[in-house]
Amino acid sequence: MFKRGFLNSEKARKTMSTEDAVPKPPTVEKLPDGLESVVFESNPDFHIAPPNVLQGMPPGKTRTVFRHWPRDPKGQVMQKERAIQGKMTPNGYQLWGETLYDFFRTTPLPGVDGYSMISTSSKLATWMREHGELSATHELEWAEKEKEPKQIFPCDVGRLIRDREADAKRGWLAPGSPFSKRAPPVLEERIPHHLLPKKLIVHDPWNTLSVAHADDDDDEDIALADKPDVVHAYRLSRSKAGLRKCEEDAERARKAAEEEAASTVNHLYMPGDYGTSLSLILHVTTPPLPPLPTSVDEAHVYIRRRDLCGEGNHSIVYLVEWELPRWLLVGREETFCDQCILKMAEVEIKKRHEAGTLYDRSADASPISSLDCPSDTPIVHVELNPKVQSSAGRGELCEHFQARFDGPLGGEAPATARVVVCAKLSRQFDTHLPREASNYQLFPDWFFEHWSGYNVVKPLQDPTPCGAIVPNFYGYYVPDESEAAAVPRFSPTAEDSQLPPSPRASDDDAPEPVLPKRYLSPILLLEYCGKQIEPDELSIDDRQEATSLFLHMSRTGWMQGSIAARNVLVQPGPLSEWPLGRMVCRPPKNSFRLIDFGRAVKLDRWPEEQDSQVMQLFDLGPLGRGTW
């Protein structure tokens, strides 16, 4: 599909893709046949049970299976061991539906209405057609309209960064200053393994990385500029699984880059675009834009102990500012100037018009769909090689782009940008943190992904959203001993000293204290996902959603190892909304995530004992049965 002018930019494509991925309640002008008895409203929200169903449900419960799929009394028995696969997300769980209206109860034994099971429209429709049972015409018609699962992405952090930079230019916050009153945006997007920074420069003026030896004076309110900087070098540490994922991500990126380099960029301009006098449709092809870098050598982390986020027996978690190359967060900012393209095209069109070759097309020119432009308007194809421009204001710009940066809000954008993430530190001699980092690199990709729709996960009997299970993993870093000499060192005091055991030693011949090597904690960088839950304060929907995260882990053989409320985080959602939109979302929607995997293990079986503990933690009663 061709887009007009600037809509063909990488930024526009990303924005359109993201907006398309945001789940919206289906809207219909008229309810499909067969639903009039289910709902009162003519245009219901298909992500909440209808009012007549809600009336019989406890407060805080809006999700349940309320539709029934009728059976032909002479139909065949639905055998569980011969169940049909329906639509699924990458988690592989069978019971997926786009909305609450895509879940049904039905009887596997025709005529035995007292025995029912839960299934989905895609599974039931496929089974019914394969077995010739087509009497449920309304339900079959509804199943045909169900969309495929699609991945949902968090709001664009690049947009939030650009907004913050604009505020700095207006003088609303200090540009380039860590720990300003208005914190940078929280990073909620995944970073491919091959783009994780290989080296971290950690700025730690308050000696936070030593954990046990963190400064305990009263200077935590001192501005960073007034505190002597202490810098440490860290290197990225990968497990075998992490190396394998790094290679896989790099290979996918390489293939995508090769495909992009071998293609051309299409631009479609209509008559009158940008004030031109052209009376025809102009189809322009240009060479591909320069490729993005394929690795990140270095990033910076700014940490201070006042930003404590959580603390346990084995670790301490801080909110930190992570400074990364701007392109990694904002995306490609190289583009072509539409006005320059049209100016070049007018010159080319004039030459071809005089030569009588105006409507000639090259053999390798991309075809134009009839949907892209009016059929009665002449189309001219032109191949051009315009100069690449920077929407960040870097390099030599054309007159049109330069005009954008000459105003008070202009100026070249910085080469780096900061975001907020969590830094998890380990207490000395504890081994939980490296094990947790290894587990994060073993987790399947879908543990970190948000998907549309819902699952009914046994033993639950109600649909729950298909959100991510764990925080995004941003790398495990250890002190780089090779650069230790270039880093300011800690000066131990007498209180830090250790005397070797020598019971025969006297005060006179006591040896000099042996100063220990300074402890610097390794760093596990993770996505910030909110605060610890209070189960008693959660609605039934929320308790079931949090429970489903543990249940999904169990289905893949993962034993979390520490079933406790402190290991479940909650924050306002949905994450596809802008931060302000989440705060005012009505009804409120929460987003949950599991944490603390230092004890987690991968088993070759389904750890059913974990399910019982989780159901008890969230007070959800006995285990349920009856899904197909």
UniProtKB/TrEMBL annotation:
Residues 1-29, 490-514 are annotated as: Disordered. It comes from the Eukaryota. This is Protein kinase domain-containing protein. It comes from Schizophyllum amplum.
